């Protein structure tokens, strides 16, 4: 497995909406590199034709009647928000 | 009354129902115990003293009326990853330090309906990511048997509180061993139920295809009582199985005759502490003497389990934790000039290093060009691991193994080497990948006096046979009941 570069780690941080200091970036790069080398051992296994498992139980879909039921009051829902106004979440201006 | 603190749920039930002790007296005893020893152990993030006293008063009414349920008036601790209405649910993260859920998790509704008493919320590795409780953003919990050592993790607070007698029993969550490993390190019983048996509604998500809530207790029977209380179908969790609650206490009473116990050679390998193996062998011998048959088995893909887990769990976590964006709830950074910066600053300041590491690893594994090589590959290997178990359960009823390769390690010993920390979960992870139940049962002590646990595993929804094996193992070993004094 090729070594992961600082540039790649910066790109992943961007995707994950995280920010790191240059020192953290270096530390993370070497730690991620070690972990990726370790998980790379899966490459040695032949999995041709093996069905992937995405959930450990044999359930596909779970249907129920679409009935109206009580939901949480809006003031309870927004009570934990860093900023809210008139039952809405307030975010920095985006347009 | 110090010995009351040693009693199990079933023993306390008798005292409460006969009026020898009231729920309020019992709750006071536990609150006093917390006030005395938690400054040493540091298991609780929040102690809900007032609520506990109110619940105890209500429990006493219920008991007087003669309508007590198995958990009425029993003081419990809850891992701080389970939502409790109006009471801080922090996940031991800066991100959720002030979060007060507007609803109760299903398991909390069930405990409340029985009239259980909640003493408080227990410390954990941040967002349940870790094996030592050192990743808590607030403080490290200590092992009550040796305060220089870790209690295990991520449910370290839940295990330490039971062992230190700061609650009768507790709830934890287990994604890769987070109930069983700390239970083993603290000398208590810890169960991860079959995936889907206990509702995850209100459990803060880490890796949704692996997470499961379960009990940590002083005895196997107590684990049965708690699991019977929290199990059952819940339409608010689409992965909840529409199955009746298993009758576990009844199956505990059946003997071991004819039970085949599988011994997987891949779990008794070099690197496992000698005393861990020798204590487990004593347990196996006890089972054999009670009529069980020991069978050698093989789970050939065990060596790939950790790699598989750290791809699947981190991929799911990177997606689940994208909700912490500083908008709907939780922490928001103070200084930013636009929305994107607000997200990044909030997450950079709100999450600790291990959570960031896992989000990064998961994001990388799911990113364009790597998905097939990592996530799909790991999901295929997961199938192979499940097939290993299916084959094994064709020739045995339960599997016995170590819970962890060593007894509790020292605080700080592995904290700078994430990979070494991950390797301590080698024997517990396959159970989560397969979705089967696994239990850690105390089976002895090493030379330093640290507890050793044995892990028992069974097939999907085979909790009844799992409890039958565990209960008889516990009785057969007949370990003297002792707890760390901490005074």
Describe this protein's structure:
- The complex is a heterodimer of chains A (95) and B (487).
- Chain A is mostly helical and 95 residues long.
- Chain A has a domain at 6-44: Glu-tRNAGln amidotransferase C subunit, N-terminal domain (Histone, subunit A, Orthogonal Bundle).
- Chain A has three helices and two strands, in the order H-H-H-E-E.
- Chain A has a two-stranded antiparallel ribbon with strand order 1-2.
- In chain A, strand 1 (84-85) and strand 2 form a beta hairpin.
- Chain B has a domain at 2-253 and 464-477: Amidase signature (AS) enzymes (Alpha-Beta Complex).
- Chain B has helices spanning 9-17, 23-41, 49-65, 106-114, 156-163, 180-186, 220-230, 248-252, 274-289, 305-320, 339-350, 353-366, 372-395, 418-423, 429-434, 463-477; strands spanning 44-47, 75-79, 117-122, 169-174, 189-192, 212-217, 260-264, 293-297, 398-402, 438-445, 451-458.
- In chain B, helix 9 packs across helix 16 (463-477) and helix 10 (305-320) crosses helix 13 (372-395).
- At the A-B interface, helix 1 and helix 2 of A face helix 10, helix 11, helix 12, helix 13 and helix 14 of B.
N- and C-termini, Cα separation of chain A: 43 Å
Question: Approximately how much helix is present in the residues of chain A?
Answer: 25-40%
The helix fraction of chain B, in percent, is 25-40%
Q: Could you say which structural class the secondary elements and strand pairing of chain B correspond to? A: alpha/beta
Structural class of chain A: mainly alpha
Write down the secondary-structure element order of chain A: HHHEE
Strand order, biggest sheet of chain A? 1-2
Q: What overall form of chain B do the CA principal axes indicate?
A: globular
* Structure annotation, total helices of chain B: 16
Low-confidence stretches of chain B: none
Biggest beta sheet summary of chain A: 2 strands, antiparallel
Largest interface: A-B, 49 and 72 residues
- β-strand percent of chain B reads 5-15%
Contiguous runs where pLDDT drops below 50 for at least 5 residues of chain A: none
The helix/strand order of chain B is: HHEHEHEHEHEEHHEHEHHHHEHHEEH
């Amino acid at each position: 497995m090729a070594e992961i570069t600082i540039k790649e780690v910066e790109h992943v941080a961007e995707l994950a909406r995280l920010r790191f200091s240059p020192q953290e970036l270096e530390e993370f790069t070497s730690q991620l590199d070690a972990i990726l080398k370790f998980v790379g051992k899966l490459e040695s296994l032949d999995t041709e034709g093996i069905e992937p498992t995405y959930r450990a139980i044999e359930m596909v879909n779970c249907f129920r009647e679409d009935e109206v039921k009580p939901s949480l009051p809006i003031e309870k829902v927004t009570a934990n928000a860093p900023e809210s106004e008139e039952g809405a979440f307030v975010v920095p201006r985006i347009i | 009354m110090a010995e009351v603190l040693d009693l199990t749920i079933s023993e306390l039930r008798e005292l409460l129902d006969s009026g020898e002790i009231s729920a309020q007296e019992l709750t006071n005893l536990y609150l006093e115990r917390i006030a005395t020893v938690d400054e040493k152990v540091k298991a609780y993030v929040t102690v809900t003293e007032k609520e506990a006293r109110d619940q105890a008063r209500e429990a006493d009414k219920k008991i007087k009326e003669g309508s007590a349920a198995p958990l009425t008036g029993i003081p419990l601790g809850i891992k701080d990853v389970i939502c409790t209405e109006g009471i801080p649910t922090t996940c031991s993260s800066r991100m959720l330090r002030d979060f007060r859920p507007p609803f109760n998790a299903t398991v909390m509704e069930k405990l409340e309906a029985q009239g259980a008493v909640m003493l408080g919320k227990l410390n954990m590795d941040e967002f349940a990511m870790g094996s030592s409780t050192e990743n808590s953003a607030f403080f490290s919990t200590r092992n009550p048997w040796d305060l220089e050592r870790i209690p295990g993790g991520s449910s370290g607070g839940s295990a330490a509180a039971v062992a230190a007698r700061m609650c009768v029993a507790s709830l934890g969550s287990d994604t890769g061993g987070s109930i069983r490993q700390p239970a083993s390190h603290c000398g208590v019983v810890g169960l991860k139920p079959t995936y889907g048996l206990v509702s995850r509604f209100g459990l803060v998500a880490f890796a949704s295809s692996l997470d499961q809530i379960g009990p940590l207790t002083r005895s196997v029977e107590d684990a049965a009582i708690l699991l019977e209380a929290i199990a059952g179908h819940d339409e608010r969790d689409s992965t909840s199985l529409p199955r009746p609650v298993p009758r576990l206490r009844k199956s505990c009473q059946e003997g071991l005759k004819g039970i085949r116990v599988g011994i997987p050679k891949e779990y008794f390998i070099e690197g496992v502490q000698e005393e861990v193996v020798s204590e487990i062998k004593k347990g196996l011998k006890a089972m054999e003497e009670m009529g069980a048959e020991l069978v050698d088995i093989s789970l050939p893909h065990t060596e790939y389990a950790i790699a598989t887990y750290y791809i699947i769990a981190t991929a799911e976590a990177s997606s689940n934790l994208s909700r912490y964006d500083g908008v709907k709830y939780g922490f928001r950074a103070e200084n930013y000039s636009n929305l994107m910066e607000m997200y990044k600053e909030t997450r950079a300041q709100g999450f600790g290093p291990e959570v960031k590491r896992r989000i990064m690893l998961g994001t990388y594994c799911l990113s364009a060009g790597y998905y097939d090589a990592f996530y799909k590959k790991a999901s295929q290997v997961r199938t192979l691991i499940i097939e290993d178990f299916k084959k094994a359960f064709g020739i045995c009823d339960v599997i016995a193994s170590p819970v962890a390769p060593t007894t509790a390690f020292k605080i700080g010993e592995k904290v700078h080497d994430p990979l070494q920390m991950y390797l301590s979960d080698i024997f517990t992870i396959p159970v989560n990948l397969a979705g089967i139940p696994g239990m850690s049962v105390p089976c002895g002590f090493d030379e330093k006096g640290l507890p050793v646990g044995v892990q028992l595993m069974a097939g999907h929804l085979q909790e009844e046979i799992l409890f039958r094996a565990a209960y008889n193992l516990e009785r057969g070993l007949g370990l003297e009941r002792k707890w760390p004094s901490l005074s």
